[in-house]
Amino acid sequence: MNIKDIAELASVSSATVSRYFNERQSLSQETQGRIQKVIEVTGYNPKRVSNKVDINRNPTIGVLIPSLLNPVFAEIVAGIQQRARHFNYSVIIIDTDYQPERERNAVVDLIRQRVSGVIMTVANPNNCAALELLQEFHLPVSLVHNQTHPETNAYRYPAVFVNNYQAGWDVATQLLAKGHRQLGMIAGQFNRTDRAQKRYEGFRDCINNNPQATLDTVLEIDPTVTNPFTDTNQTAFPSDITAWFCSNDLIALQLTNYLLRHGRLVPEQVSVVGFDGMSIGQITYPPLATVKVPHQQMGIIAVDLLLNSRHHATLSLHSELNYELSLSGTVADVLRTNNTIQSIG
């Protein structure tokens, strides 16, 4: 990090930065404020001379993802890297562990690395300090999986996504058509993933439209915990619920394993639906019912959106991709005869 870097980030000349350090009073308060902001964020110290080789002159894209443990984000990163290589960009990857407060810290690190732009999945784009900081520094950004809406400030950011609300609605529609009337949902904590929130809202609203159906239980779990279901929380899974919708495939696989360990047959006694279309869910038996999302394509498009933004191309800022319902395997129809309920596997 040198004076030229500070000047570029503050949108001033190198000479202006030099004047800031030597004759600050000659600069306007607004210019001083911009330079000071950059110095505070980057930690630049003009008295500290670095002997390190500058390795960040090659164009680099910063990538912020919530987790390196969820295979979904590995697929997205694979698409990003494939497309970035095509344009001779390298990639820096940082995971934020589903922690909104870590998003800003990660962006500060990427600004110091002098990246050309940032691709990110955040907890909530409508209330995100990291996005605001990128906006201040005029760094191009594109969002992956975060769906923004025209009435929000976040709509100005390029984004690639699926319609999570509609997908949740469609899952409920299919489960209701299969005879399920008492349903439950398990999701990552809504304050840490807006995707789970939207999937829940669509699922809930569809069920509420059916006077014979009820959404009996909604559980929010920590998305970073590898074993969220233990023997101590058996009461959280009422036996009269015949179908569970999970906000991602990892949760669905964990739930299926938990139910089977406690003598509940899937799908003969209870159905389970995930979300994402992870390949590992298709090699289990029975294969996991899910909503398939083209994650690698998302990563590819995210790079295109970022570079279009960087070069001020007049192309669409938002790309909504199709998803595919695959409700077989761990989902069965419900047969109702008098007071008994049976699932037809």
UniProtKB/TrEMBL annotation:
InterPro entries documented for this protein: Cro/C1-type_HTH, HTH_LacI, Lambda_DNA-bd_dom_sf, Peripla_BP/Lac1_sug-bd_dom, Peripla_BP_I
Q: Does this entry carry the keyword Magnesium?
A: no
Keyword terms:
DNA-binding, Transcription, Transcription regulation
Gene3D superfamilies xrefs: 3.40.50.2300, lambda repressor-like DNA-binding domains
Q: Which positions make up the signal peptide?
A: none
Record carries keyword Transcription regulation: yes
Q: Which residues form the HTH cro/C1-type domain?
A: 1-45
Q: What superkingdom heads the lineage? A: Bacteria
Which stretches make up the HTH lacI-type domain?
A: 1-44
In Swiss-Prot or TrEMBL terms, this protein is called Substrate-binding domain-containing protein
Q: Which organism is it from?
A: Vibrio tritonius
